[in-house]
Automatic annotation (TrEMBL):
<dbReference type="InterPro" id="IPR036179">
    <property type="entry name" value="Ig-like_dom_sf"/>
</dbReference>
<keyword id="KW-0812">Transmembrane</keyword>
<keyword id="KW-1133">Transmembrane helix</keyword>
<dbReference type="InterPro" id="IPR007110">
    <property type="entry name" value="Ig-like_dom"/>
</dbReference>
<keyword id="KW-1015">Disulfide bond</keyword>
<dbReference type="InterPro" id="IPR013162">
    <property type="entry name" value="CD80_C2-set"/>
</dbReference>
<keyword id="KW-0675">Receptor</keyword>
<dbReference type="InterPro" id="IPR013783">
    <property type="entry name" value="Ig-like_fold"/>
</dbReference>
<dbReference type="GO" id="GO:0038023">
    <property type="term" value="F:signaling receptor activity"/>
</dbReference>
<dbReference type="GO" id="GO:0150077">
    <property type="term" value="P:regulation of neuroinflammatory response"/>
</dbReference>
<keyword id="KW-0325">Glycoprotein</keyword>
<protein>
    <recommendedName>
        <fullName>Ig-like domain-containing protein</fullName>
    </recommendedName>
</protein>
<dbReference type="InterPro" id="IPR040012">
    <property type="entry name" value="CD200R"/>
</dbReference>
<dbReference type="GO" id="GO:0009986">
    <property type="term" value="C:cell surface"/>
</dbReference>
<dbReference type="GO" id="GO:0016020">
    <property type="term" value="C:membrane"/>
</dbReference>
<keyword id="KW-0472">Membrane</keyword>
<comment type="similarity">
    <text>Belongs to the CD200R family.</text>
</comment>
Length: 243
């Protein structure tokens, strides 16, 4: 009888919440037997797929494991076939996932006479991506957005940003809460937003020396852009200037 050895290869791919390791023994006669050897601390779901192509047999074995492992593991794919003098062993090393690198930053900007504070929390992790939430910002945000980028090196960057009128959260502690399987507990990053002083308006009148004219001053001190106008009684006029 004809015996043809298999072509063997392995590949590991990432899914959203798990990894899949594929071990294939292709185009052999007869079909190869594939089994998995896992470390004692690791479990996984195994499935198989077999095909016949013009009399040759191809077998694919799939091992599904958690996306995040807390330490490095070596998994072995074991192939048996009559054409092989001994079992063919292929080792696949699965690296551990790492805890998120977290940064929080703030910024300010004025828009249409109102000052806004922007707070951004960024978490860089191995797969899977981290989950970000906030405290102290419910029902007070003007804008809220998230971002997610998967990099070629396998890392994931997640960002969460909100923008709020500065006075609404002035002087308060804002907490970015990050969850990831590599963390034993959730990580929190606290940032205190700067306090803003209440706006102050002063109006006073000065008598100028050696002239019948008077100087009226309206002064605004605060964090917002404002427009100041004068309403003069009767047909009175005056020269207006701003500083």
């Amino acid at each position: 009888s004809v015996i043809v050895p298999p072509s063997i290869w392995t590949v590991m791919s990432d899914r959203t919440d798990h990894k899949v390791i594929e071990c294939s023994a292709l185009n052999s006669i007869p079909a190869a037997n594939i089994s998995w050897l896992l470390p004692d601390s690791l479990t996984g779901h195994v499935s198989y797929n077999s095909t016949d192509n013009n009399g040759t047999q191809s077998v694919k074995a799939f091992l599904q494991i958690p996306a995040c492992l807390h330490k490095e593991h070596t998994i072995t794919c074991e192939i048996e076939h009559p054409a092989l003098k001994q079992k063919e062993m292929r080792n696949i090393t699965v690296p551990p996932c790492f805890a998120p690198y977290i940064t929080v930053q703030t910024g300010k900007a004025c828009e249409k006479g109102r000052e806004y504070t922007t707070v951004e929390c960024i978490a860089i992790t191995s797969k899977p991506a981290a989950n970000i939430s906030w405290t102290q910002v419910k029902n007070s945000t003007e804008e809220f957005r998230t971002g997610h980028v998967t990099h070629q090196n396998g890392t994931e960057t997640v960002s969460s940003t909100f923008r709020v009128p500065t006075h609404l959260l002035s002087g308060q502690d804002i907490v970015c809460v990050v969850e990831h399987p590599a963390l034993l507990t959730v990580e929190r990053r606290t940032i205190r937003l700067p306090s803003t002083t209440s706006p102050a308006i002063k109006v006073f009148l000065l008598t100028l020396k050696n002239t019948p004219r008077m100087l009226a001053i309206c002064e605004y001190v605060g964090s917002l852009d404002v427009n100041i106008t004068w309403l003069l009684p009767g047909n009175n006029t005056g020269d207006v200037s701003f500083t």
